[in-house]
Amino acid sequence: MEQRKRMRARIAEEDFKLSPGIEPRESLETWQKVISAAWDMTIVAVAYNDMRIPLRRVPETLETLEAEISRIGDETTLDVIEEEIKTGIRHFSDILEHSRDSRDRMDRILRATWNRRVQLKS
Amino acid sequence: MAEATIPTFMRGKDKIMSLSDAVKTFVKKGTCICPGGFSYTKKPFALAREVIRQDIKDLFVTMNGGASICEFWAAAGLVKLLDTTYIGLEGIQPVAYSVRRSIQDGTIDVEDYSNYGYGLRTVAGRYGWPFSPCMSEFGTSFMDNDTFAKMGLRGKKADGSWIHPSIPPARAAVIEDPFDGWGLRPHAFEGGDGTSNQTNALEKVRESTAYTGKQGVKVILVPPILPEVTIILAQRVGNKGTTRIEGILGPDAEQAISAKYCIAQAEKIVTEEELRAQPYSNTIAMQYVDAIVEVPYGGFPGQVPYYYDYDWDFWRAYTQINRKDKAEVNKYIRDWVMEDEWTFLTTRPGDGYPTITGTKGLQRLFELRADATYGYKPGLARPL
After folding, report:
1. How many whole angstroms separate alpha carbon A42 and alpha carbon A105?
2. CB 3.0–4.6 Å: which of A2, A107, B93, B197 could bond B319 by disulfide?
């Protein structure tokens, strides 16, 4: 009962009043660019969350396969492995290249943010 | 997981089984079995082959989406009843020949639904509805034929139990639309209905006196499917049964959830943790899966999206083989499945039919690997 009273007291008439229009401190274009980049990084983060565990498993299965190579007796099996690994290299290189590129840009953006912060303070 | 959802004979046991044990445990003579997948895609062929190896007869096959598994079972003489929508092997053989021949010679009795009608039956089964409404079978001869009724398989026995637990008491029922056609297209929006689907032209339906003798909008009610066992193929299945299907879903989730038991054939069994990283991407919850078998390449000669493509050369050759004498086809299919799946996979791909490269066994299987960007193998030759 006491809690309900407090709740009732807190929701006063002035709480329902809407704020007056505030002059935007940042342009809409800037916000759109921030959101666009944040969303793209989120999409990748969500997809990565799905492949996090399989990706962790790959080095282990590759290690097992590497150990098996010395026991292979048929050259056509080596052809199959070669083909699978080449495909893997193609996909993983693509992932690596874009990840590295994105990661480098993130560092640059952090530096640029810091620079801009210093400029705004001075 | 609530124990009530686990079959009594499976309580305390591991769901992960060998192919042979899974089929032995769940598929018996006369079982109503529902193969998942669609056409050549994601069909649990390893489980289907094991049914042939164990020679499980008098099957009641209920299925949507293509006859590739049923064709092999029909060729092996294992099917008695068939409840389906179409029996094609897609473009390569519009009517699967062994199924067709068995229907023609009276070995298989078939009940036929429209694709949409059957699809809605699986939806009713999934959600536990007593029926689904549709109109897609009006104006066809579907409603005039009722094979299972003629065979005396519908309804109840004197003791009140169902004559066949997987066969509904009626093929379908027609009722007056209680909403007087309000939901039909074209809708009564101002300026007309811009949707492309005008198949249920309201006035024609309203004027008709068919089925009930009275004018007015009618609806067909189709019963759910209630198979005893559904077999599905998924790329990844968790060690407790959570199932992740990638690519075309087909009717797999509906059919799996409709069934009393579900066997999931996996390309790879993984930890539950791996699949629960994104629970919303999973297709079937663990409590609906009763047995899990791991058979990499077990979808051969079909396709598993993102893993491998179908073996077109096999199907091209098979559609010539299945036109041979019935006994010869029966012997072929029983020889083809070999004594176990591993022997099959290392021997049969590329064996007994011409391919461009002439490779066999696992080399042939790796030749069919899909490009993960597309989900299939773009360069696969598909000559007719």
Report:
1. 16
2. B93
How far B379 CA sits from the closest chain A CA (Å)? 15
Q: Residue B319: enclosing H or E segment and its boundaries?
A: helix B312-321
The residues on B that touch A, with CB distances below 8 Å, are 270-271, 273-274, 277-278, 281, 359, 362-363, 366, 369, 372
Chain-chain contact of A87 with B369 (C-beta, under 8 angstroms):
yes
User: Which chain A residue shows the shortest CA-CA distance from B272?
Assistant: A53
Across B243-259, average pLDDT: 94
The residue extents of the domains of chain A are 26-69, 89-122
How is residue A84 written in tokens?
């699978």
Total-model pTM: 0.89
Closest partner residue to A80 among B278, B363, B372, by Cβ? B363
Supply B50's token pair.
């094991």
> B8-130+224-384 belongs to which homologous superfamily?
Glutaconate Coenzyme A-transferase (3.40.1080.10)
Q: Name the closest residue on chain A to residue B244, using Cα atoms.
A: A50
For B199, other C-beta atoms within 10 Å of its C-beta total 9
Distance, in Å, from the CA atom of B118 to the CA atom of B83, rounded to the nearest integer, reads 9
Tell me the per-residue pLDDT of B289-303, one tens digit each, with 9 for 90 and over: 999 999 999 999 999
Q: Residue B254: in which H helix or E strand, if any?
A: helix B252-258
